[in-house]
Amino acid sequence: MAYFPMFVQLKNKKCLVIGGGRIALRKIEVLKDFEADVTVIAPEMIPQIRQIDKIRRIFRTFMEEDFKEAELVVAATNDQKVNSEISKICMQRKIPVNAVDQKEDCSFIFPSYVKEGEVVAAFSSGGQSPMITQYLKEKIKPNLTEELGQIAQILGSLRAFAKSCIATEQQRKEFYKELLQIGLKDIDSLEEQRINEIIQKYTKNQSEIEEQ
Ligand SMILES: C[C@@]1(CC(=O)O)c2cc3[nH]c(cc4nc(cc5[nH]c(cc(n2)[C@H]1CCC(=O)O)[C@@](C)(CC(=O)O)[C@@H]5CCC(=O)O)C(CC(=O)O)=C4CCC(=O)O)c(CCC(=O)O)c3CC(=O)O
Ligand SMILES: NC(=O)C1=CN([C@@H]2O[C@H](COP(=O)(O)OP(=O)(O)OC[C@H]3O[C@@H](n4cnc5c(N)ncnc54)[C@H](O)[C@@H]3O)[C@@H](O)[C@H]2O)C=CC1
């Protein structure tokens, strides 16, 4: 079964990671990368987890009341029974849950991803082979450049303006495409004056349409 790649807003969401080993660390780093509010619960945590900034650490085994406020949970202990129990609690409470050792206990799984600014490419093999998932990430890395992330930010900042000032969706599409092509050739040439020239070209078209 293939999983649907849903892009979820995690900023400031209360995410609970249960377990304090190497795999918990990997999951915490991903959640932090998307600005989640992370709490870790485990009797023992590896030094790298103890050193992470701005997370809550609770040194004990989990309790049912820990789930009260959780909006997303990762069961990352090394005990399958414990992870399964966590999963059941979350499923009952309809909290999205990931269990690191058994996809049957997951309502969502983690992808391998590349992120530049707000552009994210994410891969999954439906749990069949994380190696393949990692391989795909490495393949896309040379294409998902820092510049592409910057171009996305520039195009994003022009969206509201383009919607109000460029007449049709087709024209807006051409406008974004032209800016993208320029940015891909040379990000530095996508500066204010050049952008203004292109804006004028597309808004001029609109005033011509309005005059007719
Ligand atoms: C179902 C899923 C649930 C979940 O964790 O969300 C899951 C489950 C399991 N992984 C296992 C093993 C490995 N996982 C990795 C790596 C990653 N695993 C990740 C995700 C996922 N792993 C989800 C499915 C993803 C998909 O759809 O493809 C990544 C992408 C994201 C992340 O972890 O954040 C991250 C790469 C991050 C990156 O580099 O970008 C490596 C490689 C390595 O460690 O270098 C190995 C060893 C090689 C191998 O086994 O293939 C085992 C067996 C453990 C055992 O044998 O004991 C299980 C349990 C089982 O399969 O039963
Ligand atoms: N999803 C993935 O990508 C992968 C998953 N795995 C799975 O991940 C599991 C965990 O791996 P590691 O982090 O290396 O294990 P680990 O042994 O380093 O850490 C286990 C952690 O769980 C904690 N723990 C145990 N019982 C607990 C409880 N009742 N409440 C709270 N915390 C508890 C321990 O204190 C410890 O911090 C492995 O057993 C393996 O099945 C392994 C490789 C990749």
List the helices and strands and how they pair.
Elements: E1 14-18, H1 22-33, E2 37-41, H2 47-50, E3 56-58, E4 72-75, H3 80-93, E5 97-99, E6 112-116, E7 119-123, H4 130-140, H5 146-157, H6 159-165, H7 169-185, H8 192-211
1,4-dihydronicotinamide adenine dinucleotide binds near residues 18, 20, 41 and 130.
Please tell me about this protein's structure:
The protein is an alpha/beta fold and 212 residues long. The protein has three domains: 14-110, Rossmann fold; 112-144; 146-206. It is 46% helix and 14% strand. Helix 1 links the parallel strand 1 and strand 2 (37-41). Ligand SHN binds at residues 26-27, 30, 98, 100-103, 106, 109-112, 124-127, 129-131, 133-134, 137.
Q: Note the total helix count.
A: 8
- Which CATH-level-2 architecture of the largest domain? 3-Layer(aba) Sandwich
What is the 3D shape?
elongated
* Total beta strands: 7
Supply the helix-strand structural class.
Answer: alpha/beta
Give a list of the ligands.
Answer: ligand SHN, 1,4-dihydronicotinamide adenine dinucleotide
Strand content: 5-15%
Helix fraction by DSSP (H/I, runs of at least 4): 40-55%
Whole-number tally of structural domains: 3
Low-confidence stretches: none
Order of helices and strands: EHEHEEHEEEHHHHH
